[in-house]
Amino acid sequence: MPEPLLEVRDLRVTFRTRRGTVTAVDGLSFSVLEGDTLGVVGESGAGKSVTVLSLLRLIRDPNARITGTALFGGEDLLSMPESDLRAVRGRDISMIFQNPMTALTPVYPIGWHIAEQLRAHEPMSKAAARARAIALLREVGMPNPEVRVDSYPHQLSGGMRQRACIAMALACNPRLLIADEPSTALDVTTQAQILELMLRLRNTHGSAIVLITHDMGVISETADRVLVMYGGRAVEHGSRADVFRRPRHPYTWGLLDSVPRVTGGRVRRLAAIPGSPLSPFEVPTGCVFAARCPHRHEACAQRPELRGVDGHLDACWLPDNRAEIRQQARSSQPAEVGP
């Protein structure tokens, strides 16, 4: 196996609050290879965004405590001097933030955002930076880039703002692109265009991508490997084919079964994961999904570690006949009606 571009080991992020300590990320480990796309999926509150923000040390809360290691190109992002990390952000690692409206400064045109990043990392004149900004906007499919380069964020649609954020993130041809819910609040047509654009640019520039989403459909179309998170922990990790065709963790089963089917009969009721999302104030010492799992048993009082073979890992105490257990559970779901 080649050396990973990014290797995260035992990442823990906690926050001190008046109600006690909140555990947002609890012993998370994963790696990203050169040119690969890692899809990180899980419901809101799973710790996805906190994970990537902590890697870039963008969590400024004085009550936050971040431990673990995050090796990028052999250097630990969590311990390197701030001046060195500033040189990495935007140049080697770029991020597309969740909300393109709040990610852009409203008093500056989008061309300024792109040019400012270019000039921060490369010796370049204002005229050259502006020309490069126009070229980037054209590359991401922005209509009339020569005009839009001088537009302010409020003058652009959601899809245009997202394209501007992608252009800014790709300005310095980063080795790693982190996309935090890049298609949130976009219509399905624009969403498909944005995802296609990201994959095309990955193939053009050779960047690795960490794609964060709660949409299993997006993961199925874009990811090479999939990391399923729940309660700040990794509950399943493997190739896209393994996770979608042979899912092993009950939480992954619930995510896949809750996606509406487009073929076959129509179910009487859409499948849903029972219970409520885990409270960060009440993270159990055992399995984080036990309270919502229909297959829980005595062993779940102990914390399961990620284990498996051939790179397909899961954190569950169920025996190895997972396919049989899942099939029995699915057969008990409401019957289908006609198409």
Helix and strand topology:
Blueprint: E1 6-17, E2 20-32, E3 37-41, H1 48-55, E4 64-72, E5 75-76, H2 82-88, E6 93-96, H3 100-103, H4 110-121, H5 126-139, H6 145-148, H7 158-169, E7 176-180, H8 188-205, E8 208-213, H9 216-222, E9 225-230, E10 233-239, H10 240-245, H11 250-257, E11 266-267, E12 307-309, E13 312-314, H12 322-331, E14 336-337
Parallel strand pairs: 3-8, 3-9, 6-7, 7-8
Antiparallel strand pairs: 1-2, 1-4, 4-5, 9-10, 10-13, 11-14, 12-13
Helix pairs in contact: 4-5, 4-7, 5-7, 7-8
Q: How would you sum up this structure, described in words?
A:
- With about 350 residues, the chain is of the alpha/beta class.
- The chain is about 30% helix and about 25% strand.
- It has an eight-stranded mixed beta sheet with strand order 6-7-8-3-9-10-13-12, sandwiched between helices. A four-stranded antiparallel beta sheet has the order 2-1-4-5, with helices on one face. A two-stranded antiparallel ribbon has the order 11-14.
- The longest helix has 18 residues.
- It is globular and about 65 Å long.
- The N and C termini lie far apart (about 45 Å).
